[in-house]
Design a protein that fits this description.
Elements: E1 2-4, E2 9-10, H1 13-19, E3 24-27, E4 37-39, E5 59-62, E6 65-67, E7 74-76, H2 88-91, E8 99-103, E9 117-123, H3 126-129, H4 133-144, E10 155-161, E11 165-169, E12 178-182, E13 198-199, H5 204-217, H6 228-239, E14 244-250, H7 286-296, E15 299-305, H8 313-316, H9 318-321, E16 327-329, H10 338-353, E17 357-366, E18 370-376, E19 380-383, E20 386-392, E21 398-404, E22 413-424, E23 429-441, H11 444-449, H12 453-470, H13 473-495, H14 512-520, H15 533-545, H16 548-555, E24 558-561, E25 571-573, E26 576-578, E27 596-600, E28 605-609, H17 615-622, H18 644-658, E29 666-670, H19 676-680, H20 694-705
Parallel strand pairs: 2-23, 4-8, 9-10, 9-14, 14-15, 15-16, 28-29
Antiparallel strand pairs: 1-3, 3-21, 5-6, 6-7, 8-23, 10-11, 10-13, 11-12, 17-20, 17-22, 18-21, 19-20, 22-23, 24-27, 25-26, 27-28
Main location: membrane
Membrane topology: Peripheral membrane protein
InterPro entries: ADF-H/Gelsolin-like_dom_sf, Beta-sandwich_Sec23_24, Gelsolin-like_dom, Gelsolin-like_dom_sf, Sec23/24_helical_dom, Sec23/24_helical_dom_sf, Sec23/24_trunk_dom, SEC23_SEC24_subfamily
Length: 706
Amino acid sequence: IFCCTLNAIPHNGSLLSKCKVPLGLYIHPYKDIQNLTVVSSSVITRCRVCRAYLNPFVTLLSNHKWKCNLCFRVNDLPNEFVYNSNISINKRPELRNCTVEFIAPSEYMVRPPQPAVYLFMFDVSFTATSTGYLEAACRIMKEELDKLPGDSRTMIGIIAFDSSIHFFNLKPSLPQPQMLVISEVNDIFLPSPDDLLVNLQESKELVLSLLDQLPNLFDSSRNVHSATGAAMQAGYKLLMPTGGRITVFQVSLPNFGPGALKMREDPNQRAAATKEIPQLVPATDFYKKLALDCCSHQICIDLFSLATQYADLSSLSCVSKYSAGCIYYYCNYHRTNSAISMKFESEFRRYLSRSLGLEAVMRIRCTRGLSIHTFYGNFFVRSTDLLALPNINPDTSFGMQVSIEESLSDLKLACFQAALLYTNTKGERRIRVHTLAIPIVASPDQIYRSLDCRLIVNLLSKMAVDRTLTASIGDAREALLNAIIDTTKAFKAHIRSSQKSEVILPSSLKLLPLYILGLLKHTAFRLGTSTSLDARTFALHQFNTLPVKTALLTIYPALYALHDLDKNEPIRTASGIVPNPPQLPLSWEKIYKNGIYLLDAGTIIFIWIGKAVDPRLLNELFDKDNFLSLPDTYMISLPELNNALSSSVRKFVNTLRLSRPICPPLYIIREDSRFRKEFSQNFVNDRTEATMSYFEFMVHVQKQLI
């Protein structure tokens, strides 16, 4: 939930600089927690100076005093908190748990708690409706409507857009939904402001009726225009009084009205030798300005892009980035593409039903002498340490860098505290507090032993995203390479090694070169013309928001041999006993034609079937007699067969899927499938026409050290 790239903090900035390792924090503040400790005390104990919350790392000085672990101020305990060394520590949850949630009293509210307000906006241009997405989205919404988080105050609205904005009056007294069309999109107004957002309970039947009718209303339209910007402006005006969440489904490039965009992609100049991609910079500040307006009124905009062609995500993504929203991308979505359709359905169902925090702010505090800077994620920075989050969801994470401004030599612990103030969908104001304490050390050896390679790679990826968008992709790639070289040089200087021909890294970072190579080959940072601008933009966005485990799998996927599934002892998990196969290096040298392999790339899972596979395995796993009887495209699910291997593989796949918030789609492909390239591009260890192998990369790094 809350962790640091170093598990030991250098006692001064000079030591950190000498070790050449990045110091930063990762936080997943609203993560789903099964046994979250909730404190309902009428008094929330906080430091009078820095406003830190009482936590397990404060010092209790007497029955009536406590010393803050961040600013070291001595504070009075409240009257209801009478400290007794025998029993109070066990009774006070804020002194026992690093993560607690307080039910906030009225002084933490600037207005009555916001209700859950949902506004759905559908692209109904000809390009959009021809994909079939509208039928799928409406069907899923009907099935999940009762799972939308909220209470009796929950409100909902629906808007459609092409070259006009189509509002729907859902007032419960109406016999059926009433459509109101505004064609003048350059000066948008609300035709019936009081009836476009309605109470969900009171108008539920009308909402369901509209979801039934919506696909048919526009199925004969040939309108090729998309006034996405005007629709978002209308949504902003509609939600201004309440705040809430706008969900935008966008298929066509916004080409009409405010915020109209033009085709900027030339496939021949996507990432040429110049290593500069100016099209990654937004074409207009329209969407950023709109996002900031939304943020100031507690409105979040989430974007579902189902584009069949270039959609300029570089420009559109700003509307979600600065309003604390989410971006989903389904390249070439069509109802006949079963894999992408299943991915959309799985993610949209999760999106509709997951918990939601409203009108949130998050502040990060730290021990005196440390400072936090350069935040990563989707938010608006309201002040140096305060993030404005109109919505917060359990699938989003944040990163930040930390600097050592003063000597910490007289301290034993460096502490960090994140406080998330939000309104839940039941109308309660809550404060979720996470506290992290890390020992302070003076030895480089202790620093190098304490490094968390996973979190360092995660932070480096976020820094590389920032460098790509503010400078160039070439600068970002160079910075990633320098991260290895600088750390290696510093470590070699520390141990005074004479083995100049050998690349030496601390054992804690032995996988760093492999991960950096994975980043250089990743969709976000690789060169060449095969990567579309939208795919690259989405990959860059994901690094800023994905949880660490999923992000690392997109960098260096996990490869397993399913024909050796029982090679290791199975492990016991919360869901039962599951297989624990060994992970293989990402090289074709480890792939045999008589094998079946699973590749977990974080947001997608492949099962690859070799040409010479044993027919018995095919029969037990897929109920097929031979290789050629398998589809030559792909399958998206494993048949449920009554045998041990089928049961084990399905259990293993389900375990992988359940370990992350968004269920990755499954592609089952033959060795000769035309989707082989999507599978092969994950083999980080191997050489390609444009990239080095792992061995060649290590030789290259070695030369830079001489």
